[in-house]
Amino acid sequence: MIDVFVSLGSNLGNKKKNIEKAVKKIGAIENTKIEKISSLVKTKPHQAPGPNYLNGVIKIATTLSAEKLLDSLKKIETELGRKRSFKNAPRTIDLDILLYGNKKIKTKNLIVPHPKLKIRDFFKKSLLEIEPNLKLV
Ligand code: ADP
Ligand code: MG
Fold this sequence. Notes:
binds magnesium ion, alpha+beta
């Protein structure tokens, strides 16, 4: 099992419900279990106008590859009604992989650690809330 941190964000519809539904669906992904859930925080949208976000981070353990996990997360986004209209458009749910073990990945579809990890305050705060000993270098 590999420990993975996934960010959850919603700024459309019933944000809390959307996040709860996403967590439930993530828990139902094959060979994956939820280990910890951070508190949810309100944040301002960044680089785009629009409603405030509700954000959180979860820690999961999985045997799926990062690519497979990303596919499953994208499927959940679609199931929860996410439409891909324009960059940074308001969304019912955004699920990003922040950390996948201590692996570094850089492919066309996936960059891990998440490129915004260090510049988005809530990523760091929520990660440290659920994993106080995490080393964010
Ligand atoms: P954003 O999350 O940047 O607001 P999207 O959710 O629309 O935008 O994602 C755009 C693309 O980013 C996805 O199709 C995905 O392939 C790619 N991507 C690259 N790295 C990651 C990552 N660590 N987690 C999630 N998606 C990623
Ligand atoms: Mg995303």
